[in-house]
Structure formats: C-alpha cells, structure tokens
Amino acid sequence: MCRSIKTLRPPALPEEATGAEIRAAALQYVRKVSGFRAPAVHNREVFDRAVDVIAEATAELLAGLEVRGQTARQAG
Questions:
Q1: Rounded to whole angstroms, what are the CA distances from 21 to 16, 28, 72?
Q2: Contact at 8 Å (CB) between 6 and 12?
Q3: pLDDT in tens, 38-75
C-alpha cells in the first residue's frame, strides 16, 4: 500500500472526503501501480482514465460504507 494514501472515511476524517482528496488518493494509487510519477505523452490518456475510474469507484465505496450502523455519507 502506498503510504501517502490516507484513510478517507469517518472517523479517520472528521468530515466527508472531498472530491480533491478522493482524486489525490486515486492518483497516488495509479502512480504506485504503474511505476510512473508522470506518464509519457503516449501513456497520458490511459493514466488519466485510470485515475478517473478509481476516483469514481472510491467515491462509490465511501458512499456505501456503513460506519457505526450508518452510511458514511450520513455519519457527518
């Protein structure tokens, strides 16, 4: 696991994760998995698409998690 990816669900965060926080975590994940901090021009499209897909999946995951009997979105 990439150490710079932080936990984005309550109670680790006092509030709901922002879109920027979710995207930053997705970017760190794609960087770790691909081994590229910044992809070459010919890999930029697939790199960016992966970040988008992972950010979307992360937002969906956080929205569906139950924290202490509530969904993560209701916990705030």
A1: 10, 11, 15
A2: yes
A3: 999 999 999 999 999 999 999 999 999 887 755 555 44
